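Entry:
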Amino acid sequence: LPKTLTINGRTKTFQPNQFDASTLAIDHFVRMRYEGGVPGYYPNSAGRADMDASFAPVNEFGESIDPNDLFTPLPNLNYSRYRNKDVAAYHLTGWWDIFTDGQIETWRLMREHAGPVNNKLQKLVIGPWAHQTIGSTQTGDMQYKENVADLIGFDLGNVDLDELEVENLLKSEIVSWFRYTLNYNNYANIGVPKVLLPESRKWQNLAGGTIKVRVPSEDYKITFIELINFINGTGDLKGLKLDIDVFGIISSQTIDIPPLGEPIIPELSGDQIGAAIDSINFVNVPDVRFYVIGPVDDGIAENNTAGNYWFGADTFPLVNDISWQKMYMHQGGKLNEYAPDQDEGYTIYVHDPDDQVYSIGGANMIVRLPDGHQSTVVRNGNSHGQINLADTRWKHRTMDRHGVVSFETELLKDTVSVIGFPVVTLYAKSNPGGAVDGPTDTDFFVRVLDVYPDGRQFFVVEGCVNARARDYARYMAENDGHEDPNLPFTNINIGEIYEYVFRIMPIAYTWGKGHKIKILISSSNHTRYQVNPNLPIADGDFFRRQPLDGQKYIFNGEEMAPRVAVQRVAHSPEYPTSISFPIYNKNYIGISEVQPGASDDLNITLYPNPASEQINIYMNIKQEYQLTLYNTIGQEALRTNFRDQVTLDASKFDKGIYVVEVRNAKSGKTITSKVTIQ
C-alpha cells in the first residue's frame, strides 16, 4: 500500500517500488545531518562514514572509532579500514557503471594497504559496460565486437539466466580466479574444492517394495570438477557406498557409477570440464586490464583496426605513453588545439530549472529513457552507455535544444585515442533572472560525444561541477583524484566570471578517422542529477528539489523560488575555455591542418521573452553596439548604446510585439530578434 512520509517538513506519498525506494534513500543520504553536522551532500559529512569505507576508520583491532573522537575535522584517518582488507580481490566494473570511479579508488586503496602477496592479487577489469551489462557485448545502442567477451569468458547480453551456458561460466576467468585464490596459492593452499553428499537417512523402495536401498550409506566426498562432469554426463562416480535391504537382510556394497552419456541438466553441452588447477597464474596477470572502445561499423575500412582491444597495464590512469592535449572551445562552436588569440566573446544559453535537459546515456543504473522509449539494442528502456543522441526520439530533449550549446572538431584526419580522466577548464558567468548582483549558485555539465560519419552521435563520457563546490573539484583535478573534503563550498557572485577546473569520468576510447569529437555544455542533466535552482545556498545547507515541484528556499530570511539563469561561457586569451585529453597515441598528429579563425557571427540572447518588467539582452561578442527597438508598424520606440549586455525597462512600453535591432559599431553587422511585451 502507498506510504505517507514526512521528510524535512514535507509530506509525500510513495508507492512501494524500487524507484521510490531509491528516492527515499537519496533523500536520506544528501539531507540527513548526523551529530548536528552538515548534510550528506557534503564530502565531510559524518554520515559519509556509513557509506564509504575510506571514511569509516577503525582502530587496530578492527573496532569502530567513537564519532565524537573522530570528526575533528573529518576525516581523521588514524587507521584506515582498508588495512584490514589484506585479501586478494577481483575488481570488475564498466566505463558506464555508476560505481566506476569508486571501484578504481577501491582497487587503488586495497593495493596500497595489502601485504606483499595480496598486493599482487588486486586485479582491476573495466569493460564497455553499464552496471547491468557486465560481461555483455551490448550496452546502450552499441553492439561491440565479440572480443569484449574474451577476457572474463562469458557474455551475459540479454540472455535469460535460464539460458545461460553454464559451462562457459565455469570456464570463465572469474571462476578461475576463485579457484586460484581460494585453492591454489602460496599462503592458504586448501586444495581442490570438495562437494559432500551426506549419508542418507532415507530408504528408497525398489521392485514393489521387496528391495530397499539407502544411498549413499556414508558421507561421500568428491571434487567439484568430478561432480560437474558427472552431471555433465562425461564423468563417473567411483567408490559410492550403499546399503541394500532384501527381505530384511541388509548388506553393504561399494559401486562405481559409469558416465551417463548425456547431461542431467539439458543446458550442459556434454563437454568435459578441465582440471581445477588452471593454467592462469594470476600473479603474472596485469594488475589492470581495460577495453579501449573504437569505431564499430562506421563504413571506413581504415578504422577496422582502430580501438576495440583489451589493454594491460600496471596502473590506472596510465603514467607512461600519455601526452596531454588541450582542445579549446571557441565562440561559434569550433573545437581545436588552438587557444583564442583574441577576445571572441561568449557562448550563451539559458538554464531553466523547470525545463530540464534529460540524461540520455552514460553511467546510469535506474535512469530510464524518456517516455518509456527503449534503446535500439538494449530493450529494457535503461538510459545507459553509448546511446545515439541524434536519435529523433530524444535529440530534442538532450542535445538539439535550448539550454545546450555544442563545440565540434573538424573531421579527424587520424584516429585519436583517449585513456584516463579528461580535465575541463571552464570560464563562465551566471545571471539569474530578477537579480543584477548578489550571491547565486549553478551547475555546469560537460558531455563528450563521438560523431560518426553517417550522422549518429554516440555518448562517450561526461562530468560536471557544482559552482559552490568549485574549489573541491579543482583540488581533485590537480591532485590525481585525491580530495580535501574540508574545503568550503561557497556561492558565486552574479555576473562574475569564474574558473572551473574539474575532472570528468574515466574512459578509454578511440575516435576513428573521419569522425568528429563533440562537446555539449548545459546546466542540467536530469534525472541522473538534480536540477540546480540557481539560488544561493546557506553555508552547510542543501536544497533538494524536483522540476516543477513548487518548492521554495529561504536564504537569509528571504523566500526564493527557482530562477531562470543566462549562462555565458567565455572564450579569450584571458579566459580560454578548454578540455584536456590524456592522449594515448605516439603518432598523434592533431585535429586540423590549419588554425580556423574565431567566428564573427553575431548572436543575441533575450530573456525573458515574453517580458513584463525587464528585458535582458546579451551579445556573444564583447564590443560596442547600438540598439534600436521598433514596434510592429516600424516606429522607433527606443535607441541606446551598450557593450555586451543591457537591461531595458519593459514597463515603459505598450504591450505588443517589438523588433530588437542590434548593430555592431565596429563591423557594421546587424542582428534582429523579436520580443513580446505583456
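The two ends are 47 Å apart (CA to CA).
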